């Protein structure tokens, strides 16, 4: 394992915390190094992550059919009602379309799909080829919107022009065109928007229930179980609560600038951060002290129920080591706290989209010897998992094969999971999955554990 090296040019995006208080300097928010096989996705992927959960909108990929493979069934986003978002549509551009342009095909596709499905809005995603041939999708969208009477919104998500984080920004730009176009007269002054919660496995319903029990009106969730009508009314909320800061902070800032709505950053993972997410919202409404009292009541009830259940896991997991590599750095903070609550330490912590501020906070949280990485790749992840003797890797679908090939447990904290991990009940689900993964008897047969295959 000592022979696994770091690619030249990647050194500045890796930091190991050591005794002595060395100066912290990590490079981030850069394009991926050529040849590093980055775990990041493209701009197009980032835009789909944010917008796909809007369930009553039409989602049309303008480009080759291959890009349309990034569907609901890869990402997942459950709905309590319409499921138009589960259908993947593409203009399926071919060679002649590339030569002569795809605007006519885009127009015809939109008219046909809007007539058939009657969506509340339509999002049109540009792919790499559109950026090359120069189709004017804005003009097509304006024309179709005028003819059909629904918002038709271009999403400038050409994959090659940046990173997944740029895709988030493109999606937020499209959402801002919807925000402010709906009525707000009946919205309570004690109201919020939940930003950055995508309802992969029903988390948005759990979080909404907590806030509504506190007496808070949730105007919109952007975008988990999202509705076009709710997004259009979002400017009537009193506060924006941003859960996935990497994907939605730009929207929160735009809404603050245009509508004067303040925002706070929260996390819904783990006991400590879930409790803080309720308290921080309650603090925003000091003229209604009963909201804070209700938040305390919810936290007390849920922790009283949850804490004893976690102790049996703690007895088995204490001393075990985890590696974390996820999309946004803010999620990493919560995962570290959650793992510590059952006696586990974190030996590797990294993200795809973290910024300097995130990594500085991460450095302060981590133990001595922890490796912090930005925009890592499979070789690096393998190197540090082996060197630090991690028992578990927490990541997404692209990291799963790395863990299994190395003979360590894996916990999916991203796209494909079907069990909610947010909220108090989500904390139990998370630790249960960690326990089942780390303590599985199968690892005695893994080569690195001294067994044989």
From TrEMBL:
Q: Which InterPro entries does its entry note? A: Nase/OxRdtase_comp1 (IPR000510), Nase_comp1_CS (IPR000318), NifE (IPR005973), NifE-like (IPR049939)
Q: Which GO terms describe its molecular function?
A: nitrogenase activity
Gene3D superfamilies given in the database record: Nitrogenase MoFe cofactor biosynthesis protein NifE, C-terminal, Nitrogenase molybdenum iron protein domain
Under Pfam families, the record lists:
Oxidored_nitro
- One annotated GO biological process: protein-containing complex assembly
Q: Carries keyword rRNA-binding?
A: no
Q: Does the keyword Secreted apply?
A: no
Where the record annotates domain Nitrogenase/oxidoreductase component, the positions are 42-438
Q: Which UniProt keywords apply?
A: Nitrogen fixation, Oxidoreductase
| Source organism, top-level taxon | Bacteria
Named in its record, the pathway it takes part in is: Cofactor biosynthesis; Fe-Mo cofactor biosynthesis
Query: PANTHER family, alphabetically?
Result: NITROGENASE IRON-MOLYBDENUM COFACTOR BIOSYNTHESIS PROTEIN NIFE (PTHR42956)
Family, according to the entry, reads as follows:
Belongs to the NifD/NifK/NifE/NifN family.
Job description of the protein: This protein may play a role in the biosynthesis of the prosthetic group of nitrogenase (FeMo cofactor).
Name this protein carries in UniProt: Nitrogenase iron-molybdenum cofactor biosynthesis protein NifE
Native source organism of the sequence: Chlorobium luteolum (strain DSM 273 / BCRC 81028 / 2530)
């Amino acid at each position: 394992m000592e022979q696994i090296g770091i690619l030249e040019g990647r050194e500045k995006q890796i930091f190991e915390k050591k005794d002595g208080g060395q100066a912290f300097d990590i490079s981030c928010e850069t394009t991926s190094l050529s040849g590093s096989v980055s775990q990041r996705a493209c701009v197009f992927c980032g835009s789909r992550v944010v917008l796909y959960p809007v369930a009553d909108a039409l989602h049309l990929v303008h480009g080759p059919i291959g890009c349309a493979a990034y569907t609901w069934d890869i990402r997942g986003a459950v709905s309590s009602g319409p499921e138009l978002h589960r259908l993947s549509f593409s203009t399926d551009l071919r060679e002649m379309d590339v030569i002569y342009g795809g605007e006519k095909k885009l127009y015809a596709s939109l008219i046909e799909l809007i007539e058939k499905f009657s969506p509340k809005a339509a999002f049109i995603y540009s792919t790499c080829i559109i950026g090359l041939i120069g189709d004017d999708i804005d003009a097509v969208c304006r024309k179709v919107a005028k003819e059909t009477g629904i918002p038709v919104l271009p999403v400038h998500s050409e994959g090659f022009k940046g990173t997944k984080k740029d895709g988030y920004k493109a999606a937020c730009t499209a959402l801002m065109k919807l925000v402010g176009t709906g009525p707000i007269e009946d919205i309570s002054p004690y109201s919020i928007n939940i930003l950055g919660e995508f309802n992969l496995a029903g988390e948005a319903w759990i979080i909404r229930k907590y806030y509504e029990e506190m007496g808070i009106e949730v105007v919109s969730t952007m975008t988990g179980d999202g509705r076009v009508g709710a997004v259009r009314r979002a400017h009537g909320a009193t506060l924006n609560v941003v859960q996935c800061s990497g994907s939605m902070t730009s929207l929160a800032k735009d809404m603050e600038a245009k509508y004067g709505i303040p925002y706070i950053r929260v996390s819904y993972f783990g006991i400590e951060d879930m409790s803080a997410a309720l308290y921080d919202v309650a603090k925003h409404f000091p003229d209604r002290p009963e909201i804070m009292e209700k938040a305390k009541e919810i936290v007390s009830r849920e922790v009283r129920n949850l804490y004893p259940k976690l102790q049996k896991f703690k007895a088995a997991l204490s001393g075990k080591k985890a590696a974390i590599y996820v999309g946004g750095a803010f999620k990493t903070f919560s995962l570290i706290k959650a793992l510590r609550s059952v006696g586990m330490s974190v030996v590797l912590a990294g993200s795809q989209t973290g910024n300097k501020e995130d990594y500085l906070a991460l450095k302060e949280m981590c133990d001595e010897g922890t490796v912090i990485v930005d925009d890592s790749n499979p070789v690096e992840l393998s190197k540090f998992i082996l060197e630090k003797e991690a028992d578990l890797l927490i990541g997404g679908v692209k990291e799963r094969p790395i863990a299994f090939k190395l003979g360590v447990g894996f916990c999916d904290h991203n796209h494909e999971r079907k069990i909610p991990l947010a909220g108090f009940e989500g904390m139990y689900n998370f630790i249960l999955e960690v326990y089942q993964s780390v303590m599985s008897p199968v690892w005695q047969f893994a080569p690195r554990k001294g067994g044989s295959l």
